[in-house]
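Raw record, unedited: DNA polymerase/3'-5' exonuclease PolX
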Amino acid sequence: MEVTKKSLVGALKTTADLLDLLGVGDDPFRAQAFRSAARSLEGVQDEVEALVARGFAGVPKVGKAIAADLLEYVRTGVFGPLEDAASLIPAGVLSLFRVRGLGPKKIRALWDAGIDSLEGLREACRDGRVAGLKGFGAKSAASFLAAVEFALSAQERQHLSTATEVAEGLCRVLDGLEARVAGDVRRGLDTVRVARVTVTADLEVVTARLAGVVEGLERVGEKPLFAGRVDGVPVEVAFAPREGVRGALDLMMGGGTAYREALRAEAAARGFDLSGHGLFRAGEVLDTPTEADVMRALDLPLRPAEYREPEHDALWKALPHPDQLVTVADLRGMLHTHSTWSDGAASVADMAAAAVRLGHEFLGTGDHSRAAHYANGLSIERLQAQLKEIRELQAAGVPLVAGAEVDILEDGSLDYPDDVLAELDYVVASVHSLFTLPPERQTERLVQAARHPLVTILGHPTGRLLLRRPGYALDLDAVMAACAERGTVVEINANAYRLDLDWRVALTWRDRVRFAVNTDAHVPAGLADARYGVMVARKAGLTPAHVINTLDRDAFLAFVQAQRAGR
């Protein structure tokens, strides 16, 4: 499987965390060396092939030893320092990293106290042991109990980006066999249980291709299906022995359980038997190479992959055809991005250049405001210095739009005064603190911000981190109604760890508000996350007309001016 820059950075960061958990031993700086290398690698714009070709030479903070380990990782898929550290830590202790609020130091304290699994942590939170530990307390125990319950409920799922990379990697391994991404990834679900792929090939060919690639590879009963794991991610590869039955296989692998069962029931009611083996009538298999061929034989409309969830049942026929839905190519401006001015890893100019290389026309800046001190948020003086730099770059032809991600404070006011906000070309307003306010206060806080005449976009509206923490408690419909009333754009945050706004909410409000698919990129590579936000938008039935950053730069600036004028 192909090693990506994201996986290289992830291996470095995870190694640093595990070394911190184990203790620094004789080399107190080793963990920091891996963490610094990860940060540096995030900021370089070269692709993996170019980095490997020069042995990672020239990447700051990546010394000879780490470079050698990275090269071995690219060659074998194994990062030695990570494997060495993980081998010293029980699997249950490793799982504690999935609990929000737990870092290496606190996990070490729990481990030393004999709490070495998610289930064990849940019980220790309930029986008072966590509350009694030094540095924890009753409030922490209650918080961790909620977080561990969430982690346990999410432990069988993967982020969309992770599953997408695995599924697309399998397609490359199975090149030449008409390999296609299937299942949850094809439908663009925000989290994925299994990365699925379908191919046209016989059992022996598929077995030979997957040998040594998929761990624990096994045939699933008599089904035309193999299962196993790739890098810990559950995978399924379904095979059609010939083209004539591929359509039935793609349908059966292209929807959730409820969709498959309903479709099979519809087929049975019409005298057919539908399964992954094909579409049968009176014991004879029909020639159906595509999904459309199957549905034509059944005299049923073909339901687009994006619309195969229960939430679509009553309305999918009224939603736009997939050819009309927004695509990554429709996005002309990248809004809500970060640079080295706050907590990003690249300069404004480098981020703009990366956006242009991806085919976009302009980049909107969105560094943090002063309340986000943990993220090197900009004081008013630093914001004005950044604006000066942006205006100079604009004069030099760099396609930039000057914005900021401004914190929404506890009372709903914004982190910069209005006269400062008015100097910006646009404003993203987001919550980064006080997630546990009572629902009424949280709702009023966001409603007030959404109604502010200088707020262009409401950023990551619920604050959720998928598989890590739920969104904060609030009346989201009231917030959406305030956005609709004022004309405030609602963000679909394309970062795969957020995907916030949820597609179900966007589907409900698609005809009442405008949306922006924003990457929230902190590194140049993060700009490519737009694809995941577009998946969310497509599930919500959004066309380019629904998405504000499909406008060109001049049209976007005109939109902001009209919005500020209340038009």
